[in-house]
Specification:
Distance between the termini: 37 Å
Shape: globular
Helix content: over 70%
Radius of gyration: 19 Å
Mean pLDDT: 86
Number of strands: 0
Strand content: under 5%
Amino acid sequence: MKTMKNTAYLLIGAAMGIAGQLLGELSGSVPLCVSNLISDMTIWPLVILLIIHRDVDAKTMLRDIFLTFLGLDVGYYGYVAVKDLAGYMRFGGSLSSALFSDVPDLIVYTVLGTAAAAWGWLMVKLLDRNKAVLYNIMVLPFIAVQLLFIAGDIISWEYRWSMALLGTVCLAAIIYLYTVKSPLRRRNDTVTNCPAAA
């Protein structure tokens, strides 16, 4: 049971990675917000903050975010490697290209996942110490990045309206989660309702 709990986010990330590839294969027949739902970065500020929003300790937060991105990389690029290897076995070509062409991207996203995990760990530490101002400041980069994604989609030469709409929904969800449903408010309510505090 403990092993399943520890690896749950790894499996979820792997499933999302494979789903991202499968959705990408629908490109041209569905809106971009569907085909690029997982492969595009638009939803990831919200996904990270959804994981951080939970009431868990800092060590668990670090592990879960890291495993999510590790699973995402394994699922996303593992799917590509299997397809490329199958193509090599069928048609020939370069084996090294089939197996290692996506390694640079894999490294980049693993580093990003590690950074996100460290960010989540620090946010939980600030929450535990009731550092409300610093905690809220650490949410702001996610909002800024989300705004940049929306602006980029709007001014894009191809005007990716569906991605801009998806980004707007994600931005609204982030603001809602960290204002109305803020973990700071949840923590304060818990302290206020504690019998020892009465």
